[in-house]
Amino acid sequence: MRKLISFMHISLDGFVAGLNGEMDWIKVDEEIFDFVGKRISEGDTALYGRVTYEMMESYWPTAADKPSASRHDIEHSKWYQNVRKIVLSKTMKNTGLSGTEILSDNLADRINEIKQEEGKDILIFGSPTTTHSLIQLDLIDGYWLFVNPIVLGRGIPIFTGLQKKTELNLLSTRQFSCGVTELNYIRKIAITE
């Protein structure tokens, strides 16, 4: 069974963005890009909320075509163009979107169907509102977190609306030279599935 994994940068105090969605505190560099690029290149499905999808769609399809494109831009642009994209949205329509499908209702049933299909892990990129909805529906199997060395004090928390305790197993951890620490967790219940 495929697993649904949330990929998120967070502050040390558990926020994914500032109160107004600011993410200027997130540290990324070539070391992180290389590490993340290898991991996501193994995936075949990306799940986004509408806002994150629109942000991605405005940049990644043509990022590799820019004269100043970095190696990361070229590699991620190619991956983005080929990956299956699923967007959770009640307002978007699925017209003219190549390689993209919109889910607007029956989320638990539809996502569980996708998890049963042949394929690799489904990665949720950013999308805090979507992540909150999927946490409440008890659909997330793992958390791939990049803890930034900053305390925001206030902001949008990663975990909100939890209905029950969720036990996790730490699969891996890595310290990056910029001070970010990767923590890769899987739900204990997902290990047996």
Automatic annotation (TrEMBL):
Family matches, as SUPFAM superfamilies: Dihydrofolate reductase-like
Biological process per Gene Ontology, one example term: riboflavin biosynthetic process
State the InterPro entries in the record: DHFR-like_dom_sf, RibDG_C, Riboflavin_Biosynth_HTPR
| GO MF term set | 5-amino-6-(5-phosphoribosylamino)uracil reductase activity
For the Bacterial bifunctional deaminase-reductase C-terminal domain, which residue ranges apply? 2-180
Protein name in UniProt? Dihydrofolate reductase
Species source reads Pararcticibacter amylolyticus
